[in-house]
Amino acid sequence: MNNNSMKYLTIDRTILLGVIGFFLGIVFLISYSSQSSQNPWLYYHKPEFKGQLIDFDTKQPIEGAVVETLYFRVDLISFGAGHADEIFKISESLTDKEGKFQFPSYTTWLSPFWAGENVKFIFYKPGYVNSGATDDPHRGFMNPKIQEYTWFWNKNKIIRTHGGIYELPKLESKEDRLRAMQFANIPSTGDFKNRDLLKKLLNDESLYLGFAPYP
Questions:
Q1: 3-class SS at 48?
Q2: Regarding predicted confidence, which is higher, 192 or 74?
């Protein structure tokens, strides 16, 4: 190979690396800037989440409750044409003696056909009102402002959240405990992949209430 050929090869390689670098730079800027939007693209990142569960009336910590973090993504191809979001990762934890829980920050890359969405949480302890799947924690239980709400199946039980603290009221009747157990597995009914902690509590509660083991 003569000197001219080597020269052209070097130039072509430089151009190619420049184009690749430019493209990666654009991808990085788009994905980085999208973190402030509702649907971050490619680069999916969620910060550390931590909080505490306490009894609504006694203010004592609730130990041994299951806390689930549900990470959602949305299908960009079918977005706007129907139900396009799905859970792609579930993390579980049990509250400690102080009722506290903690999840480390989570980062991953999505395919170009998917965009990230906000996480949701489920808090469940047999004998307490189930929280359901709460939306964006920064507008929900991690918001310093006190918020109160009830579930449609029991308007008499108030759930209170503020600054990472989640206050759950106790349930007295067998019917209410059964309702709470049934709603604990929403929005992924029947899917217990990587949900061993929740499955165990639901199974224990089902047996306690006199029913068959939870499916």
A1: coil
A2: 74
- Kindly state the helix (H) or strand (E) to which residue 22 belongs, with its residue range: helix 3-33
Please spell the DSSP secondary structure of 163-201, one letter per residue: TTEEEE-B--SHHHHHHHHHHTTTTSTT--TT-HHHHHH
d(CA 65, CA 205): 12
Residue 37 has pLDDT above 60, yes or no: no
**Mean pLDDT of the residues in the chain:** 79
Contacts of 78 (CB under 8 A, 6+ apart): 84
Query: Would you identify the CATH topology of the domain 48-70+89-103+114-208?
Result: Immunoglobulin-like (2.60.40)
> How far, in Å, CA of 40 to CA of 45, rounded?
8
Domain ranges for the chain, please list them.
3-35, 48-70+89-103+114-208
Highest mean pLDDT among 6-20, 83-97, 140-154: 83-97
Question: For the whole model, what pTM was predicted?
Answer: 0.77
